[in-house]
Amino acid sequence: MKLLLKALISIIVISVSAIAIKLYWNRDVAINFSELMPKEFFYCGENIGPNSKEYIHMKKWFEANQTKWKYTPLNNIQRNTFKSPTMTINVFLESISVIYPDKNGAWREASRESKLDEFVLTCQNSEN
Asked: What is the pTM of this model?
């Protein structure tokens, strides 16, 4: 009987911990990314800074959108990105996300679980 009680208590503790972790990661947070922006970005083959229209637009967007962000686990750090005018593929450790236009021209994003080694391409240095 004591063994059964210990097992039940263990299951309850593990379940409550799992629920707490899930609630923690799914909560909305406020982050002002406009304050975290670097001095410049590499965008469309050139460096853009605080005086460019793209940088100004991005900064204003971040200022206006400080809420409803969700934290994601670190295993979602992007490993590779493949970009073209009609598709972007983001490869993560345990998933792949594809952004693409559907047949009506509306941009969509679809993702699925996949291990990194199932969809990995290594960038090759041109000097090698």
From this structure: 0.49
